[in-house]
Task: inverse folding
């Protein structure tokens, strides 16, 4: 079962991830939402759409924009709606 962790803390765990471009997208309900802080950052993917970001906060340490998701993905990426992926040192095992 894929597990996402950072700084020694489990962020998400699910046996229902979707892998796109090598990244595991976890269902929203598998993530510890108490560790997420809203971010104003956005980026654009030509085929997935507009990505939004969240910052991880674990024991006072912040990992800015380490979580991304597509609130309204394009139809080609519909399978990742309501799912979150990680980077910036977050390890998925």
Result:
């Amino acid at each position: 079962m894929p597990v996402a962790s950072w700084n020694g803390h489990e962020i998400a765990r699910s046996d229902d991830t979707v892998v796109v471009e090598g990244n595991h997208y976890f269902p929203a309900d598998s993530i510890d939402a108490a560790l997420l802080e809203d971010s104003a950052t956005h980026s654009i993917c030509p085929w997935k759409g507009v990505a939004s970001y969240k910052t991880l906060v674990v024991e006072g340490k912040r990992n800015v924009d380490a979580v991304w998701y597509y609130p309204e993905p394009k139809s080609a990426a519909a399978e990742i709606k309501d799912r979150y992926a990680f980077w910036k040192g977050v390890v998925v095992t």
About this structure: The beta strands are 3-6, 9-13, 18-20, 23-27, 36-45, 49-58, 61-69, 83-86, 91-92.
